[in-house]
Design a protein that fits this description.
The structure holds 2 protein chains of 2 kinds. Helices cover about 80% and strands about 0% of the residues of chain A. By secondary structure, chain A is mainly alpha-helical. Chain A has a two-stranded antiparallel ribbon with strand order 1-2. Chain A starts with a helix and ends in a 10-residue tail after the last helix. Chain B is of the alpha/beta class. Helix content of chain B is about 35%, strand content about 25%. Chain B is built from 9 helices and 10 strands. Chain B has helices at about 45-50, 75-80, 95-105, 115-125, 140-155, 170-185, 200-205, 225, 230-235; strands spanning about 5-15, 15-30, 30-35, 60-65, 65, 80-85, 160-165, 190-195, 210-215, 215-220. In chain B, helix 3 (about 95-105) crosses helix 4, helix 3 packs parallel to helix 5 and helix 4 packs across helix 5. The longest helix of chain B is centred in the last third of the chain and has 16 residues, at about 170-185. The interface between A and B is medium-sized, with 18 and 27 residues.
């Protein structure tokens, strides 16, 4: 029963989401684009960083690469190929970065990925100013907001399915073993570098595509917009809030936080950053392992203390 | 007897400290050999170099006619060397069965799904842990964690099994069970190299012992002979007793 039920629910949710642009107004579609974007980013981020516990702040590096690829080639490459090109560039960068960094562990990896995003931003700025002679670029593409919405929905669906498949596959177990103890992982015969590189590449390509698909929404991009580090932090905190080790975790974190930030930026535009920081701190302090883990632990504790589940002493 | 594991001039230096100094010995197919020595004599470093956890500074290690020194630990594991660790290393976020499946899925046999689960349960049964298969590995007691680690190492069906103080910290009853377990591994034809301090276990299990002191090999021979060697007694107890 459950075997049939879960795919049915999944299909129904995707179908309902696909129908949204027919009934929602333009603000609704915009909201949907933002939400689907962050759901995909958080799920893709958790794909690699969840089980391995390698906290990556390079999200915006790949997101920006996607957006900039579209901006640079929008007039020379036809649209669907444009996404393929962006994905390929994202993959190339991910492989090079992966090879050089995955030996780093813990805080060094975090700092490296943060530095990487800044480095790419500065390189793009330098190139634009000194070579292209411009800082901003216009993107004129005949893609409607609805089109962007559906593309993001498709990407989110694929990302979710990849995450589900990995969780059940051999590579998923390899990632968990690596996350627990790399020495044991190697002694079990796992090629740690290869597994990490593969996952980092998949995750990075998806993130690149999110940037590429969303780019036409902006019409105008410059490095400060496309490589805004807040995107990395938001993705990270959304995945952590939901629980980066669970399939549904990133989604459960991304949806409420996205709505919260949307509301905050509309109502408190001047204090947005301050409140954002406070929310970050609150999440790390109160729910370090995510809402799902928190709920599960309390559920277990609650069940253990309810009287009807105690062994029957009276007999 | 054919030599299965051949160690030649093995050396490890950490900066100015020579932890293992030109050690050579070999282990024949089916043998259970004890690697002894006072604390800090370099036994675990030797084990770590055989399993690939540490790269040797010099010397060679061969498994059969294949050179394995300097290979990555995952490559060495696939060639047929399994091990347990001096400080037990479970995988706490996995269940007990999944701990064993980890070595089945990525080891030489690449088992997965139902086949892997069945095999894992069988391996856990061999070490008396089948009833805890679906518990979280972090909830196990110390001896059960050791059992799980042994099941994980054995699941890979290694040709050579390295046991690093696997019997340490067990109470007398557990020790007896542990000795029986290792003996059953031996009867299956697995070659064992074990670092151990428990003398009863060494006398019961090891036909031959290699004794190290301060990074050098000081004795190598049948257990009774090696243990009564003058230099060995000096290393353990000091000059007065020798």
């Amino acid at each position: 029963m459950i075997r049939l039920l879960s795919p049915a629910i999944f299909l129904a949710v995707v179908a309902a989401l696909a129908y949204v642009p027919f009934v929602a107004d333009s603000y609704g579609v915009t909201l949907g684009i933002g939400m689907l974007g962050y759901v995909t980013l958080a799920t893709a981020w958790a794909l690699f960083s969840g089980p391995t516990r390698y906290v990556s702040l390079a999200t915006v590096a790949f997101f920006g690469i996607g957006a900039y690829t579209v901006a640079v080639f929008s007039e020379t490459i036809p649209y669907p190929l444009l996404l393929v090109t962006a994905g390929a560039i994202g993959l190339g960068v991910a492989v090079v970065v992966g090879f050089s960094t995955l030996r780093l562990a813990g805080v060094y990896f975090v700092i490296f990925t943060f530095g990487l995003a800044e480095l790419i931003r500065q390189l793009v700025t330098w190139y634009e100013v000194n070579m292209a002679g411009t800082l901003g670029r216009y993107i004129f593409l005949p893609v409607t907001p609805e089109g962007i919405y559906w593309q993001l929905l498709a990407l989110a669906t694929i990302t979710f399915l990849i995450s589900w498949w990995i969780g059940r596959s051999r590579i998923g177990l390899a990632l968990k073993v690596i996350g627990d103890d790399e020495v044991v992982a190697a002694h079990c015969g796992i090629d740690i570098a290869r597994v990490k590189l593969a996952l980092f590449a998949i995750s990075s390509v998806i993130i690149t595509l999110v940037g590429a698909i969303q780019a036409p929404r902006w019409t105008y991009v410059e490095p400060v917009i496309a490589f805004n580090p807040t995107i990395s932090f938001l993705t990270l905190i959304m995945a952590l809030l939901g629980g980066a080790n669970r399939l549904m975790g990133p989604i459960l974190g991304a949806v409420p936080l996205f709505l919260l930030f949307e509301w905050l930026s509309a109502n408190f535009p001047n204090h947005y950053s301050i409140i954002l920081g406070l929310v970050f701190i609150a999440i790390v302090f109160v729910l370090p392992r995510g809402v799902l883990a928190f709920a599960e632990e309390n559920w277990k504790r609650w069940r253990r203390t309810t009287p009807e589940n105690l062994p029957a002493v009276a007999e | 007897m054919s030599e299965l594991l051949t160690i030649n001039g093995l050396t490890k230096r950490f900066g100015g400290l020579t932890a293992v100094n030109a050690v050579s010995f070999s282990v024949a197919q089916g043998e259970v050999v004890g690697l002894l020595g006072p604390n800090g004599s370099g036994k675990t470093t030797v084990m770590n170099m055989i399993s690939g956890h540490l790269p040797p500074t010099g010397g060679t290690i061969a498994l059969g006619d294949q050179m394995i020194s300097g290979l990555a630990p995952n490559r060495i594991a696939l060639k047929g060397i399994g091990r347990t660790f001096q400080l037990v290393r479970g995988l706490p976020s996995l269940t007990v069965a999944e701990n064993v499946i980890a070595s089945l899925a990525f080891g030489r046999r690449k088992l997965w799904g139902e086949a892997a689960r069945k095999e894992a349960l069988q391996r856990l049964d061999e070490v008396g842990l089948a009833h805890r298969a679906d518990q979280s590995a972090q909830d196990l007691t110390y001896i059960d964690q050791k059992r799980m680690e042994l099941a994980r190492a054995l699941a890979a069906e290694p040709e050579v099994l390295l046991l690093d103080e696997w019997l340490a910290g067990l109470n007398p009853t557990e020790l007896k069970t542990g000795i029986e377990l290792i003996r059953s591994i031996q009867t299956r034809g697995v070659t064992v190299l074990m670092v151990e301090h428990v003398m009863d276990a060494i006398r019961a299990l090891c036909g031959r012992c290699v004794v190290m002191n301060a990074g050098r090999k000081i004795a190598d021979g049948p257990t009774a002979t090696a243990l009564s060697d003058r230099e060995v007694i000096t290393a353990y107890l000091g000059d007065v007793h020798a």
